[in-house]
């Protein structure tokens, strides 16, 4: 069984209902399970019909939930970083660095970076506390960028560390004769923070690409665009070394229909079902039927969870 399972796919295909029912499936088989929403537009609480929020909450026996709040995560991280710097750096340097950090907060991608920080923290700190951690992710584009961050952030951190080391060496040269200042720059807090962050990214990446520990499950509907988007996303994740655990075909029409409109839809669906089974033939494939009502609440989640036959 994988310790970490990501559920992703195009918007509206049923990622949350699929991941939530799978989390219930795992929990009811005795696995201590944590389901985490990384989608800024959370719907995990809605589907479990409880308020979850940004603190871990028990949802059922063996089952816990968490919704990452990107705005709060970003604010908390900035506050921690500034507090660490204020302990050791001169007010002039702090003022300049704080200006740079404040500019980063409003820059494109800052929300993804904040979510990624929380994701790394969960992967590193909670994998020993839970048998399985399930991530209910945002639509595909957002998630692909999120999972590619270990690569991108790693290179960026190398660049920052190199620049900071050069700056520290120059500052140390200017402190000849002043042992106190020389010692302060030798143990540079900014460099320490950058090194610690780099180690965390590397550790998270090691777990993400370990096929024994982590995988990604795609959810799609038997329609043209979700199939195209899934195929592209699988290629991108393969490039980053992330294993694909399977594909869930959601909202499949029943066979016993007589309505003319639905029969026409079923005919189109058969075409795309054949395409799905052809394109993703080497993967675990699972079908979830279209239910007459919204999948919401434990009763419906249990109904879907019965369709899972094995732990991914």
From TrEMBL:
InterPro entries: ArsA/GET3_ATPase-like (IPR025723), ATPase_ArsA/GET3 (IPR016300), P-loop_NTPase (IPR027417)
Gene3D superfamilies per the UniProt record, alphabetical: P-loop containing nucleotide triphosphate hydrolases
Transmembrane segments: none
GO molecular function: ATP binding; ATP hydrolysis activity
Pfam families: ArsA_ATPase (PF02374)
Residue ranges constituting the ArsA/GET3 Anion-transporting ATPase-like domain according to the UniProt record: 3-305
PANTHER family: ARSENICAL PUMP-DRIVING ATPASE ARSENITE-TRANSLOCATING ATPASE, ATPASE GET3
Family from the record: Belongs to the arsA ATPase family.
NCBIfam families: GET3_arsA_TRC40
Protein name in UniProt: AAA family ATPase
């Amino acid at each position: 069984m994988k310790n970490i399972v990501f559920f992703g796919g195009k918007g509206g295909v049923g990622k949350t209902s699929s991941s939530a029912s799978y989390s219930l499936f795992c929990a009811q088989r005795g696995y201590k399970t944590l389901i985490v929403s990384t989608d800024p537009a959370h719907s995990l609480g809605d589907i479990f019909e409880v308020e979850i929020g940004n603190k871990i909450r028990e949802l059922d026996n063996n089952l816990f939930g968490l919704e990452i709040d990107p705005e709060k995560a970003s604010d908390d991280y900035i506050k921690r970083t500034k507090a660490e710097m204020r302990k050791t750096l001169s007010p002039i340097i702090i003022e300049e660095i704080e200006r740079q950090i404040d500019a980063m907060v409003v820059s494109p991608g800052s929300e993804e970076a904040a979510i990624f920080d929380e994701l790394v923290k969960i992967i590193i700190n909670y994998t020993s506390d839970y048998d399985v951690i399930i991530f209910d992710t945002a639509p595909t584009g957002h998630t692909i960028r999120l999972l590619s961050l270990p690569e991108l952030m790693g290179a960026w951190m190398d660049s920052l560390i190199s620049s900071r080391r050069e700056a520290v060496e120059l500052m140390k040269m200017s402190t000849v004769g002043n042992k106190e200042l020389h010692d302060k720059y030798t143990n540079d807090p900014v460099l320490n923070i950058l090194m610690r962050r780099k180690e965390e990214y590397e550790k998270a990446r090691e777990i993400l690409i370990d096929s024994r520990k982590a995988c990604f499950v795609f959810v799609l509907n038997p329609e043209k665009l979700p199939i195209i988007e899934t195929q592209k996303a699988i290629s991108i994740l393969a490039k980053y070394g992330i294993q694909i655990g399977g594909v869930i075909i959601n909202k499949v029409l029943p066979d016993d229909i007589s309505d003319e409109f639905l029969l026409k839809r079923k005919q189109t669906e058969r075409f795309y079902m054949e395409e799905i089974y052809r394109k993703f033939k080497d993967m675990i494939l699972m079908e979830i039927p279209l239910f007459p009502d919204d999948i919401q609440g434990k009763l419906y989640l249990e109904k879907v969870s019965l369709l899972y036959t094995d732990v991914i």
